[in-house]
Specification:
Blueprint (H helix, E strand, L loop, with lengths): L3 E7 L12 H13 L3 E9 L7 E6 L2 E8 L1 H20 L10 H19 L7 E5 L6 H7 L5 E5 L7 H4 L5 H8 L4 E4 L2 H15 L8 E4 L2 E7 L6 H9 L1 H14 L3 E8 L6 H14 L7 E8 L6 H21 L7 E4 L5 H10 L2 E4 L8 H8 L8 E5 L12 E3 L4 H13 L2 H17 L2 H13 L17
Helix pairs in contact: 1-16, 2-3, 3-4, 9-12, 10-11, 10-14
Length: 472
């Protein structure tokens, strides 16, 4: 029987959390692996003075976990460097923060080659490989060089940039060519797919068939849209859990009769947290009657502290939060509660239910599952209101939210006012439409749809297995 082999930068399944998966995406991948006698491969998160390629194998439930250590220089060049100092900012429209470094590019290529060599020992002829995200774009090309003829799919969890931005990347054509070593390339939204096909059309003169099939660089791949969802059924049990109920009660007690606006993000410049703070400040300025009757809770878990841009952003947010609280705060009212601690999913469900509005306003986001989690956690009899950036991938599906431009401070401030003054009938109508969409396109729908498309790939031309060199 064929197996599913999932490859990601890090493995989201660990004995440290009771053999469970961390986060909704990891839970979905774990479900797919368990149904397909799977293997999950990735970087261990640990470093070794000299790279050996030695695999650490573990069996967690029905899933085999395989990890490999990297050298410190690998982490610096591949992860902190090319992945998060080059591709991440570029793909999120931050050319000003993009570092084009040959050392970073070399480290990215080196680690993908090392991953392919380590992975080769795990792959059986009938296995299906599913590679995840921007860290590993060249991995299929490296596997093909080693003679791998397995079906290989790739899913990009972040946006694809506009052609004018992407072409600033040195060797941009090589990166695109490497995607053609996959049998299926998936995107969250039609917009991100359109950006990719726009590059093919304008730079290579290529057109994509109605079935998503395109030929280039002597190879054929299929392109598709697979919007990721969440396990809405899980929130029913999480909402009823002791931890969730306790978190809701504690949060409601802290409200002291006030309304709460919630924001939950990883601390990243793509999330629009700075613009969100400024819009909330504008709301307090425009609506003096709301002061002391509302507060905003922003949970922003720390990430990528080794990257200078993240350090600078954290300093700016601290300063803005301090200014807002210093100017508007009173003896018993803190208008903006800003914390960098993380919370478990069941605890967040309780906090979400206590919030009258969620302010999810990324400047650019592949999907944004927090928006979906907030909706799923609501009390159907008294739901909160989702305020969502038009630049989040989720906006294409969640049209019943209050859709805003995160760069427009006044529009954001007015959306906050509208959400906090919206009557129950409208809140319930909007929530029902949003919840129906979540149920229809849930997490199982995402991974099952992708794997079915990968298994059903067309073969308009023979697979070319390259023994060496680069794509023409």
């Amino acid at each position: 029987m064929s197996r599913l082999v999932v490859v990601s930068n890090r493995v989201g399944l660990s004995r440290d959390v009771g053999g469970g998966a961390v986060g909704g995406l990891s839970a979905a991948i774990t479900a797919a692996l368990r149904q397909n006698q799977g293997v999950w491969f990735g970087w261990s998160g640990e470093t070794t003075p000299q790279y050996t390629g030695q695999l650490s194998l573990d069996r967690i439930g029905d899933v085999t976990v395989a990890k490999v250590d990297l050298e410190p220089q690998d982490v610096e060049d591949y992860y902190n460097g090319y992945a998060n100092n080059t591709l991440w900012p570029l793909f999120h429209n931050r050319l000003d923060l993009t570092n084009f470094s040959r050392a970073y590019a070399a480290g990215y290529a080196r680690v993908n080659q090392r991953f392919a060599e380590a992975l080769q020992a795990l792959i059986a002829p009938g296995d299906t490989l599913w590679i995840h995200d921007y860290h590993l774009i060249p991995l299929a090309a490296e596997l093909r060089k080693l003679g791998c003829t397995n079906r290989i799919g790739f899913f990009l969890h972040i946006p694809w940039p506009a052609r004018q931005l992407f072409t600033t990347l040195p060797s941009h054509e090589k990166l695109v060519a490497q995607l053609f070593d996959y049998d299926l390339v998936g995107f969250h939204t039609a917009e991100w797919l359109s950006a990719f096909t726009g590059y093919l059309r304008n730079e290579k003169g290529l057109e994509v068939g109605d079935d998503g099939v395109v030929e280039a660089f002597g190879r054929t791949t299929r392109l598709g849209v697979f919007p990721i969802g969440i396990h809405t059924a899980d929130f029913a049990s999480e909402n009823a859990s002791e931890a969730s109920i306790d978190a809701q009660k504690r949060t409601e007690k802290s409200l002291a009769g006030r309304q709460m606006i919630i924001g939950v993000d990883r601390l990243d410049y793509s999330k629009g947290i700075e613009e969100r703070f400024l819009a909330y400040e504008q709301y307090l300025q425009d609506h003096s009657e709301a002061r002391e009757k509302v507060f905003m809770l922003q949970i922003a878990t720390l990430s990528r502290d080794a990257v200078e841009a993240y350090q600078d952003m954290r300093n700016r947010l601290d300063a803005i939060a301090g200014r807002i609280n210093g100017h508007y705060g009173t003896l018993d009212w803190v208008p903006l509660r800003y914390v960098n601690s993380g919370y478990r999913q069941d605890e967040l469900a309780g906090i979400y239910r206590a919030a009258r509005a969620a302010l999810i306003t990324p400047l650019r986001d592949g999907m944004n599952l927090v928006a979906k989690e907030y909706v799923a956690a609501q009390d159907p009899a008294d739901p909160g209101v989702l305020i969502l950036s038009r630049f989040a991938g989720a906006a294409a599906q969640m049209k019943a939210a209050l859709i805003v431009n995160p760069y427009d401070r006044d529009e954001m401030a007015e959306a906050i006012h509208r959400a906090l003054t919206m009557d129950l009938t409208e809140r319930m109508l909007r929530w029902r439409e949003l919840k129906a969409g979540l149920d229809a396109e849930n997490l199982d729908h995402w991974w099952q749809g992708f794997l079915e498309a990968l298994a059903d790939r067309p073969k308009p031309c023979p697979r070319m297995v390259r023994v060496g060199g680069t794509a023409p």
